From TrEMBL:
Main subcellular localisation: cytoplasm
GO molecular function: translation elongation factor activity
Family: Belongs to the elongation factor P family.
Species in which this protein is naturally found: Tengunoibacter tsumagoiensis
Localisation per UniProt entry: Cytoplasm
Gene3D superfamilies found in the cross-reference section: 2.30.30.30, Nucleic acid-binding proteins
CDD domains associated with the record: S1_EF-P_repeat_1, S1_EF-P_repeat_2
Protein name: Elongation factor P
Biological or metabolic pathway of the protein: Protein biosynthesis; polypeptide chain elongation
Domain Elongation factor P C-terminal: 129-184
Ranges for domain Translation elongation factor P/YeiP central: 67-121
PROSITE patterns, alphabetized: EFP
Amino acid sequence: MISTGDLKKGVAIEFEGMPCTILDWQHVKIGRGGAIVRMKLRNLRTGSTIDRTCDAGDKFRRLTLDRATVTYQYQDGDQYHFMDTNTYDDIVLTEQQLGNAKNYLIDNIELDIVSLDGSPLSVDLPEKVVLRITYTEPGYKGDTATGGTKPATTETGLVVQVPLFLSIDDQIRINTTTGAYVERA
């Protein structure tokens, strides 16, 4: 069991019967009442983010998550297939389990798969990925690197704002936590 005093970012707990990781937490002392803890949690099964408040001193069951390195293979409908690099087992995750991570999956990318009690839940993406631009409006003479931005569609279907000088087939680096353009690759 883990108390609210031992909470940290990234810790996996069972909250209201759901496996969750702590994205952010704040200990708040109210004037006359007792202290409370505000938490921002990510549900590991659905990928949704929730905000909850609980009393200071509450206890939660700490979860032990297993991680394994996998390689993304292919998509079949709403199922995504990964290969465990140690055992060569085929691991299948649904679109719902992946959430926004599906926007960063390119063939043969290596990432970590998160499992609870042998059941795969989600994947941990690298901090940055390189994607190819498949469509964007053309740049014109006079466009500069410090000027405006324009929307660009990547090979995975993700639309990001990029500088005006980028064109189709350019490789760009994208931050997976914010979904924002970082630099030309």
